[in-house]
Design brief:
Blueprint: E1 4-6, E2 23-29, H1 34-37, E3 43-47, E4 52-57, E5 60-66, E6 74-79, H2 81-84, E7 95-100, E8 107-113, E9 118-128, E10 139-144, E11 147-154, E12 156-157, E13 166-174, E14 180-186, E15 199-200, E16 202-205, E17 215-218, E18 223-226, E19 233-238, E20 243-251, H3 254-259, E21 267-271, E22 275-278, E23 287-295, E24 300-301, E25 306-310, E26 332-336, H4 347-352, E27 358-362, E28 366-369, E29 374-375, E30 380-383, E31 392-395, E32 399-400, E33 406-408, E34 411-413, E35 423-424, E36 429-434, E37 437-439, E38 446-447, E39 452-457, E40 460-462, E41 483-485, E42 488-493, E43 496-498, E44 506-508, E45 520-524, E46 527-529, E47 536-539, E48 542-546, E49 549-551, E50 562-566, E51 575-579, E52 582-584, E53 590-593, E54 601-605, H5 632-641, H6 652-663, H7 698-701, H8 710-715, H9 728-731, H10 741-749, E55 753-756, E56 762-765, E57 778-784, E58 787-792, E59 795-800, E60 806-815, E61 821-830, E62 848-851, E63 858-863, E64 867-875, E65 880-888, E66 894-897, E67 904-912, E68 915-923
Parallel strand pairs: 1-13, 2-3, 9-12, 18-25, 26-27, 27-30, 28-31, 29-32, 30-33, 32-35, 33-36, 34-37, 35-38, 36-39, 37-40, 38-41, 39-42, 40-43, 41-44, 42-45, 43-46, 44-47, 45-48, 46-49, 47-50, 48-51, 49-52, 50-54, 55-61
Antiparallel strand pairs: 2-16, 4-5, 5-8, 6-7, 7-15, 8-14, 9-13, 9-16, 10-11, 10-14, 17-19, 19-22, 20-21, 20-23, 23-24, 23-25, 52-53, 56-59, 57-60, 58-59, 60-61, 62-63, 63-66, 64-65, 64-67, 67-68
Protein name: Secretion system C-terminal sorting domain-containing protein
GO molecular function: metal ion binding
Pfam families: Por_Secre_tail
């Protein structure tokens, strides 16, 4: 692009031009939420209609004024809504300052006072915002203290990236106490029929020339979920037009990378290509990188410092487009200690007070009656599985989940009264809801309007109150709706929707600022039972509708399961990929066994609309799912075996809903409508069951309040008495698998788990974890370390090894007579100490030598005895990661390749001639 001009030929980073700290300003649209229009990393300056406006930043006084030659009477803000919104988020260059009525001629004066004496630079962005359908755009000139510096700069139009926007770059010298006046003026050689107005989107003082910098980084700047595979990632960028070499800097210290030169450890390469391979990246680190562009004559233009974090699953089992939500990882821990609506110790206080990442744990169980809606802050993990007893049940008001959040095992049963929804993800970005239960709502139970990169999985939505006095509709209106889903892109999978009259789901598409349909929804492996007059319907840009199981019930009156409503407004396509969906009739017959991909789907047109010119139901999916997709039949069984807030336990309500779905039955009818299964008030279903109020004594359970119980910290050699506010133990990642110690504990709590003493056997009834597999289920053990496991009918018997202490997991698989299978795991706690944290006995059984320690690639193991030895390497949580049998002796060592292991603490267990010994080593 030839839309960047500068007065001078080259910029040497050793000169004084960049001597003063940079000032970066984004001119923001007025009357909009700041987080919608503001570019992070820039000072916000909201522009209202005015003749002039002044702001002081870092002691520098800057005044923007309508020039005396302007045809327009004032300055104003302007914007291009599409550029501001997803997926572009070009917030810096999609709004800005302009002249109100300046299409004939415009002039803007920028007066800068308080600059230190010496050389300075000014970078300005000029991206016009009006539609090119209505007008063309003129050029501008830039003067400094009356001297022409840039002539004939063609402003860009509606560029959707900062890197594609036109910029002007000028340098100037400043004398002490001397203001600088920069004038932006319409260029008089512009076409007479063009708009001669000027747009200034933002500016930077004392930064390098953007036209000579590397641009368009990949991963994108500030990407918290960069795709990194096995620690490997290739950095990419677009070179400056004049560059012949690229100096690459990379590190985890912002200041070091910002100020690095070629003598720094951050300096990685000087190269001609525009990619750089990174290895051994770690998801807990923020990586900073910059690319300095080198011209043929040796001129170096220092690059921007970009940053990214490698992606990391929110938790094991997180899937879909919200799978990389970071939640409260690495932050503080807040306990909910009472059932109050608000105040210290309340859930509301825990999720709304303060900022920064946090994990919310529960030290109390019972019913919380909310007085008003709760909208949680960003970067929060809500761990409902940590509650004692039956867990917590929220009633009376809804809960909203914000961006970068993880919400698991939450139960909301709203109840009659105020017209409220239940659980919301509206407007979120990178969030996931898992294993939650929502019922008895008057407005829809769930909503995700305007959300991006989200997942709703393994959640049970049931008994939306049908004829319940919705405030926006006439008396008698039935509004028992499951949910309206929207997103770019949203994943909705392995959920159960039962006894809801409509919106099962409603695909409520969003229209962007240009009036174009934009939602992309991935709806798969859901089970929908006893839907009433509406199944899934609505308008959507692109929908994958795959392998869902729709089971008619007593109240079902609609034949199709997907109705795409093509509107007479909005640009773009409205389409659905429909495949593998099963429809079961009320008598148990299959109306569609999943092989007829035309049965059960329809589309409708608005009155007066013509047939679409595109294929409404194409034969290929629109986008990947980033999840395991089961057949509809297998999904039906899997969902009914594991759905809803089932930890600490599945309450009576959800047990009934699962049972009725399996049976094709109902228990209650609506008191207003008499419809079977579709209740109108919670009293129709017997009202609230008992949720006992149980309080955990944190002084005994988690003395230091870091989220890790005392028994867990003692088991793994951590400090149960850390100072107040010290979360170093809970935020450590000893095995460097990307999950903190706290997250490892939360995973334990999110898995069915049992405790057994050394030398004893625990027996587990597996039917409670496989409710959906009713036809002659057969159970097998598919994985176990550190013990033995057998199955007797439906009883799993686990016996740990006598020498083992700690946590381990057992995988079992259920297979039924139809060949459907599902694998789940069970957690087992053995003893009070993990193996290796303390010696198994006071006296070592035999001598073992392992070296080097710490180790990078190969670990050599020898023993005082000669013979075959079974060698097992376990991570910090007792899970086996390597097993070998070697012949060892005092003079012959076994060579173990441990290069593939992540950095962290490991335990080496050696068994030889009936003796056993365990030692600890560190992998670098």
């Amino acid at each position: 692009m030839k839309n960047r001009f500068t007065l001078f030929a080259m910029l040497l980073i050793s000169t004084g031009i960049l001597a003063q700290s940079p000032v970066k300003v984004d001119f923001d649209k007025d009357e909009r939420a700041l987080d919608e229009v503001h570019e992070p990393g820039y000072e916000s300056w909201v522009i209202t209609n005015c003749v002039d406006t002044t702001k002081v930043i870092n002691g520098i006084k800057i005044t923007m004024a309508n020039g005396k030659e302007s045809d327009g009477a004032s300055l104003k803000s302007h914007w291009h809504k599409v550029g501001i919104q997803a997926p572009y988020y070009a917030r810096l260059v999609s709004d800005g300052l302009t002249v109100n009525g300046g299409d004939m001629y415009a002039e803007i004066d920028m007066t800068i006072e308080g600059l230190a004496p010496g050389s300075h630079s000014l970078l300005t962005y000029h991206n016009t915002l009006d539609s090119p359908d209505d007008k063309t755009f003129g050029m501008i000139d830039v003067f400094v203290n009356g001297e022409l510096k840039v002539e004939g700069l063609m402003q860009s139009n509606r560029a959707l990236s900062t890197y594609d926007a036109a910029t002007a770059y000028v340098t100037f010298d400043v004398k002490e106490n001397e203001p600088v006046v920069v004038t932006f003026r319409s260029n008089e050689d512009s076409p007479s029929d063009a708009s001669w107005n000027i747009v200034i989107n933002g500016f930077c003082l004392d930064v390098p020339d953007a036209g000579k910098q590397a641009k368009s980084p990949f991963p994108a700047d500030r990407d918290l979920h960069a795709e990194v595979e096995n620690g490997n990632c290739t950095l990419k960028w677009t070179a400056a037009q004049s560059a012949v070499l690229h100096d690459v800097y990379l590190g985890t210290d912002l200041n070091l990378v910002t100020n690095a030169d070629k003598t720094s450890s951050c300096y990685k390469a000087s190269q001609t290509n525009t990619t750089f391979d990174c290895t051994n990246l770690y998801s807990m680190n923020t990586y900073y990188w910059r690319v300095d562009e080198v011209e043929e004559d040796g001129t170096v233009t220092k690059g921007e410092v970009w940053s990214f974090m490698p992606c990391q699953l929110a938790f094991p089992g997180a899937e879909g487009y919200g799978r990389y939500a970071r939640g409260g990882r690495g932050g503080k821990v807040v306990y909910v200690t009472n059932l109050n609506d608000a105040g210290p110790g309340s859930f509301r206080e825990a999720v709304t007070n303060g900022s920064g990442p946090r994990t919310v744990l529960f030290a109390v169980s019972g019913i919380v009656r909310l007085e008003s809606r709760i909208m949680s802050n960003e970067q929060i993990t809500i761990a409902g599985q940590t509650a004692p007893g039956k867990g917590v049940c929220f009633r009376a008001a809804p809960i909203g989940i914000n961006s970068e959040s993880v919400c698991r095992f939450l139960r909301i049963r709203l109840g009659g009264g105020t017209t409220y929804d239940g659980l919301g993800m509206a407007g979120t970005n990178h969030s996931i809801v898992d294993h939650c239960s929502v019922s008895w709502t008057i407005d829809e139970a769930f909503s995700s309007r305007g959300a991006k990169n989200l997942t709703l999985q393994r959640t049970l939505i049931s008994e939306a109150l049908n004829c319940a006095g919705h405030q926006n509709y006439p008396a008698g209106t039935e509004h028992g709706y499951a949910g309206t889903i929207s997103g770019q892109t949203g994943s909705f999978h392995h959920n159960l929707l039962a006894h809801c009259n409509g919106r099962n789901w409603s695909v409520g598409d969003a229209i962007d600022g240009s009036g174009t349909w934009v939602s992309k929804l991935d709806v798969f492996n859901n089970v929908v039972y006893n839907y009433g007059s509406r199944a899934t319907d609505g308008e959507v840009h692109k929908l994958n509708f795959v392998n869902n199981y729709y089971k008619k019930g007593a109240a079902t009156t609609v034949g199709h399961i997907l109705k795409l409503e093509i509107k007479g407004f909005g640009a773009g396509t409205e389409q659905a990929y429909y495949s593998g969906n099963i429809i079961e009739d009320k008598n148990g017959d299959l109306l569609n066994d999943g092989t007829d991909n035309q049965f059960g789907r329809i589309y409708t047109l608005d009155s007066g609309s013509s047939e679409p010119t595109y294929e409404v139901f194409p034969d290929e999916p629109f986008f990947p799912s980033y999840a395991t997709i089961h057949t509809a039949k297998d999904a039906y069984k899997s969902v009914l075996s594991d759905v809803g807030c089932n930890l600490p336990l599945l309450d009576e309500h959800d047990q009934r809903i699962v049972r009725e779905t399996l049976e094709g039955s109902y228990t209650y009818v609506g008191s207003e409508t008499g419809k079977k299964g579709l209740i109108d008030n919670e009293a129709d279903a017997g009202g609230y069951e008992n949720y006992p109020e149980i309080t955990i004594d944190l002084d005994e359970f988690d003395t230091d309040r870091d989220g890790l119980p005392n028994w867990w910290e003692e088991m793994f050699g951590l400090n149960p008495n850390s100072p107040e506010g010290d979360f170093s133990d809970s935020n450590a990642d000893d095995d460097r698998d990307g999950y903190t110690n706290l997250e490892e504990y939360l995973h334990w709590m999110a898995t069915p788990h049992y405790e057994v003493k050394t030398g004893e056997t625990v027996e587990i009834d597996l039917t409670k974890y496989t409710r959906g597999f009713e036809k002659n289920p057969v159970y097998t053990v598919t994985k176990i370390d550190n013990g033995t496991a057998t199955v007797d009918g439906n009883i799993l018997k686990i016996t740990p090894e006598e020498s083992f202490g700690g946590i381990f997991y057992v995988d079992f698989t259920v297979t039924d007579a139809e060949g459907s299978a599902c694998t789940r795991n069970i957690g087992v706690k053995v003893g009070d100490r993990a193996v290796g944290v303390e010696p198994v006995s006071d006296t070592r059984q035999f001598a073992v030598n392992a070296y080097p320690n710490p180790v990078t690639d190969y670990l050599y193991v020898s023993t005082e005895s000669t013979g075959d030895a079974k060698i097992q390497v376990m991570n910090a949580y007792g899970n086996s990661v390597l097993t070998e049998t070697c012949n060892v002796s005092p003079n012959v060592a076994c060579k173990l390749d441990v290069s593939f292991l992540p950095m962290g603490i490991y335990f080496l267990k050696i068994q030889q001639e009936g003796l056993s010994e365990t030692i600890k080593f560190i992998k670098k």
